[in-house]
Design a protein that fits this description.
The protein is α+β, with helices and mostly antiparallel strands. It contains 14 helices and 20 strands.
Length: about 400
């Protein structure tokens, strides 16, 4: 089974232009590889140019190819302390596995390794039957969960990187990971020298960790007048103000009652137009409602910003020596490409179509079990215990996922 996939991966890399494997400032990067069936990563390697990297890949076709987010003086030194860390890209990893999408109820399964309890959808932190935390998961990707990941990428960039950190369009690249989500590589000189603590601050900022709404302009004056931020303010001040406006504007009395006391919800619902006009005025006024306190406003603000915080893997952002997937390399768990996405065209980007590496040919496979799966314009499932001929890209995807075997 591995040999079939390795052979096709080798064919792909043999036909690839070496330049498609280029990484910025390549001689300063560490490269690493995970072979088919291998549990130990081959790392601490250096390549001065794309041609030498391609030669190695064709000769030793791996399942996964990585390069460091860091720039080193001696990237091939085996001892990390001897590599001579110089700086590192700031990387954001958005993974659809971490986003609670409705589609997971259709294609994801979990199983408790202690008692055998099974279920569909997003896995629980602990088994609802025996309370143990050894949960095995079997996850898939579909258009809906990848679309949710894409929206998170757009949020990170449009809501935070560009307006709050001043990162220009030429200072970052977006990549489809080849499997479950996206990577954002920020290469601006303003972030490359950041320490782990500095990167953690950025990760916490976009995730809204430790956010205290009172520190963003909300306060009361002699328990009579409520003041708050202006919707035109920058950063979290303006973001919170705009979020509260939108939340109150769209929420019914029943929805507001889930956040604040019934009497406050009633007054807010009945005087919604007045409240919205007041907080949109210049300067904004956040009071004027009976029973409406700073505590009530805090609850509304926290409920309003739930959709504004970013769902990223903070470990990747914090790590200044992270190994990240090489552009145009194949993902060993999907046979799809790690593909650069033009940010101006990201809305129309279809990863399950544009990241397909194998456009021709077919393969006969025995499918053990699979939900509905689409790769390119081809789809099948749900099905199990069936042998059939499928397009090569779809077949390789099922084999890499462990759901099928070549016949």
């Amino acid at each position: 089974m591995r040999e079939v996939v390795r052979r096709e991966f080798n064919r792909y890399y043999s036909g690839l232009e070496a330049e498609e494997l280029r990484v910025p400032e390549m001689p300063k990067r560490e490269f690493a590889f995970l072979q088919f069936g291998g549990e130990v990563m081959i790392r601490h390697m250096k390549f001065n140019d794309p041609a030498s990297l391609k030669g190695y890949i064709v000769e030793n076709t791996p399942a996964h190819i990585y390069h460091s987010s860091a720039y080193y003086k001696t990237p091939d030194a085996v001892d990390m302390n001897e590599k001579g860390w110089q700086s590192a890209d700031l990387v954001f990893d958005v993974d659809s596995d971490h986003i609670r999408t409705v589609c997971k109820e259709k294609h994801d399964r979990w199983r408790c390794m202690e008692c055998g309890r099974e279920g569909l959808g997003f896995p629980p932190e602990s088994c609802p039957n025996c309370s143990m935390k050894k949960i095995d998961t079997r996850t898939w990707i579909c258009e809906d969960c990848l679309e949710a990941a894409k929206k998170e990428v757009i949020k990170v960039i449009d809501e935070y990187l560009i307006p709050d950190f001043g990162i220009g369009g030429s200072d970052f690249d977006v990549f489809f990971s080849g499997h479950r989500g996206y990577h954002i590589h920020v290469r601006s000189e303003s972030v490359r020298a950041l320490s782990g603590d500095g990167r953690r601050e950025i990760a916490d900022y976009v995730r809204g960790i430790g956010l205290d709404v009172r520190s963003h302009g909300f306060r009361d004056v002699k328990n009579e007048i409520l003041v708050g931020p202006d919707m035109k303010d920058g950063g979290w001040r303006g973001r919170i103000a705009r979020a509260v406006y939108e939340f109150v504007n769209r929420s019914s009395f029943v929805e507001l009652k889930e956040v604040v006391a019934p009497n406050v919800a009633k007054n807010l619902s009945e005087n919604k137009e007045k409240f919205l006009k007041n907080i949109a005025s210049d300067p904004p006024y956040w009071g004027g409602l009976k029973g409406y306190t700073l505590e009530s406003l805090e609850k509304i603000a926290l409920a309003s910003i739930k959709d504004l915080v970013c769902n990223i893997d903070e470990r990747v952002t914090i790590d200044s020596k992270r190994l990240i997937r090489c552009p145009n390399s194949l993902h060993g768990k999907s046979a799809l490409k790690t593909l650069r996405v033009g940010y101006s065209n990201i809305d129309d980007f279809d990863p399950l179509k544009e990241a397909v590496a194998f456009r021709r040919g077919s393969i006969r496979v025995y499918v053990k079990e699979a939900p509905r799966v689409r790769i390119g314009d081809d789809e099948l499932g749900p099905l199990d215990d069936k042998t059939l001929e499928v397009p090569l890209a779809l077949g390789l995807y099922l084999i890499c996922r462990g759901a099928a075997e070549p016949r």
